[in-house]
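Researcher: Structure prediction, please.
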Amino acid sequence: MSVRKSAMVLYRSLQLTFLAMALGELVMPGYPLAWEWAFLPLLLSVPLGMVVNRIGPPREVADRPPIEVGPPVRGRWSALNSPATRVPSHRTHAYGQTYAIDIVAEPESGPRTRPAFAKLWPIARRNRAFPAYDEPLFAVADATVVHASDWRRDHLSRNSVPALAYLMLIESWVRENGGAGWIVGNHVVLDLGDGVYAMYAHLRRGSLTVHPGDRVRAGQPIARCGNSGNSTEPHVHFQLMDGPDLDTAHGMPFTWRGTGVPGNGETFTAEATSSLASEDPASLSD
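Model: Predicted structure follows.
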């Protein structure tokens, strides 16, 4: 087990120990493991969490030129938490997120436009209110599927002040201690070769069309955008990593063919960049 993995496991163990001791004190007041002792594992976990969040990619990864891949979406989108604006883009190096990007659909016309963030009401919205929900996602390169999970539910949005406070103070803590899968929600990891892996997070429940071991071609539909995991609204979270294990992987810089890397708030239009549609369908099953 790597040092990074060990630190993450110990961090979660200390957090869960605190929770167990605190609940024990509430259920059985006067139990020898009193409140002052319950906070000890919590305090010990803090520096571990800081270390995991601050350990960036090794120099040979960080100094590598951005890896060019196709865009994972089609149509008009805008970027949030982009590595073109800040690195680490999500303010943490954990879970291979150093160069991760979030994108939301921004159609110029049509029945659905993206709802604005609400101060108080509505507290939450249904996923269908967001144009990114159920949008198809595409393989960014020829690859092999190494992990695919889509059984977690799509929850309501967290795009109001009360809902965001709930997410930050309670839900995120619970998901963090549940493991990487609960943070990224439904997700798929593709092996692009040469030690490069692509991860798509927050997929719609039951939308995956691929399974571990499948070969996919660039531009092939593989899933749909959802709102599972640690997510405020339906959006696509995409990143490249140097390994398939989210607890140990380091983020890798990327660029999207024909688009580059849009900065925060920048709108872009992604088009198909492969000749997949023109190939013989029989060849895609090889």
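Model: The chain has a mean pLDDT of 86.
Researcher: Thanks, that helps.
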